[in-house]
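Deliverable D2.4 — example input (structure tokens):
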């Protein structure tokens, strides 16, 4: 009986110690990343539409509900792109693509912390400058997928590598007639630093 009580007490102490270690890490994680946006440029309008690839800044905020489960909000400011038809610039636009993802963080690896995520992306197109009579839908809702890893550098500071796939599309019209859809559907490859508190 004493051995059973002793074992139970040791298990409780170990569990409290583990919970305290996790709590010491903090429930918030803020990252700043440099992200390369590589667009899929899938066009069904017949115009061979495309936007340019570019590097963009990104900030995200994660909240950990448990050591493994977190939610991440991904933010940037409106990004300007040239819009081309068959390689020729026909205009420009800005897009703001905030995303919200649910994540699972793997905690059984020593030295690094991989994670996967899935969620939703909302994109707002603005400052649209296109030839007369040509227009696009200003709003897009789509899925978002993610895989990444946090590598501890020192207490509460992490090096982060992250890859996301966003599903972004807009309908294109000319003289009020819908020509088809243009899917940006970018892959975003990012590197940055994270601070947990």
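Example output (designed residues):
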């Amino acid at each position: 009986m004493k051995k059973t009580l002793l074992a139970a007490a040791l298990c409780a102490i170990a569990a409290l110690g583990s919970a305290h270690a996790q709590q010491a890490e903090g429930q918030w994680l803020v990252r700043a990343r440099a992200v390369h946006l590589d667009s899929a440029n899938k066009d069904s309008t017949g115009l061979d539409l495309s936007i340019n690839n570019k590097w963009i800044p990104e900030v995200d905020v994660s909240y950990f509900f448990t050591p493994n489960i977190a939610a991440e909000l991904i933010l940037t400011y409106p990004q300007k792109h040239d819009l081309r038809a068959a390689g020729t610039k026909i205009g420009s636009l800005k897009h703001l693509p905030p995303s919200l993802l649910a994540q699972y963080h793997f905690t059984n690896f020593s030295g690094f912390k991989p994670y996967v995520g899935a969620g939703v992306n909302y994109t707002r197109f603005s400052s649209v400058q296109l030839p007369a009579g040509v227009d696009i839908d200003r709003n897009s809702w789509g899925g978002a997928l993610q895989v990444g890893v946090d590598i501890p550098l020192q207490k509460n500071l992490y090096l982060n590598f992250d890859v996301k796939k966003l599903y972004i599309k807009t309908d294109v019209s000319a003289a009020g007639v819908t020509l088809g859809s243009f899917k940006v559907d970018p892959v975003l490859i990012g590197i940055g630093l994270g601070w947990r508190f």
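The longest strand covers residues 113-129.
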